[in-house]
Write a structure and sequence with these properties.
- By secondary structure, the protein is an all-alpha fold.
- It has one domain (2-137).
- The chain has helices at residues 2-32, 36-63, 71-102, 111-137.
- α1 packs antiparallel against α4 and α2 packs antiparallel against α3.
- The longest helix has 32 residues, at 71-102.
Length: 141
């Protein structure tokens, strides 16, 4: 059973975190080019894969239930929650950028959203890497 949980945890990490990171990191480029169709697609991708990242957390908690008191796991779970909150803010800024760019005002170019999305998605990507390091070198097995 533990092997199945580990496979699910790693599978969700690969197939959810990768696409959500790619979608959020590429969003600023398409805001600058004012490509609404791609922005809508990236927003939907961020939402779908953002929700799927909860599977990483869920299977990780179930898998590590015997080690929940260990510092590496507590730090990892806290960082995951921070990264999830950043994804929620990226989702909000994507929605705002789409609304701003869909308006006919040529002076409104969604620069604030571009900067915030780039910063938040970069920080979230770094958090995923820190969690990976903690899981590989902090794990008791």
């Amino acid at each position: 059973m533990t092997d199945l949980l580990l496979w699910l945890h790693i599978g969700f990490a690969i197939f959810a975190l990768g696409p959500v990171t790619a979608a959020t990191m590429s969003t600023p480029r398409f805001i600058r080019s004012r490509d609404l169709s791609v922005l809508r697609y990236l927003h939907k991708t961020t939402r779908v894969y953002g929700v799927a990242t909860l599977g990483v957390f869920l299977f990780g908690v179930i898998l590590g239930r015997d080690y929940l008191g260990k510092p590496y796991l507590s730090v990892s779970m806290t960082l995951f929650i921070v990264a999830a909150a950043l994804l929620v803010m990226v989702d909000r800024d994507q929605r705002t950028a789409i609304r701003v760019l869909a308006s006919e005002d040529p002076g409104d170019d969604a620069k604030a959203q571009t900067v915030r999305i780039a910063a938040f998605s970069g920080i979230a990507a770094l958090i995923w890497l820190v969690i990976l390091v903690l899981m590989v070198w902090g794990s008791p097995s």
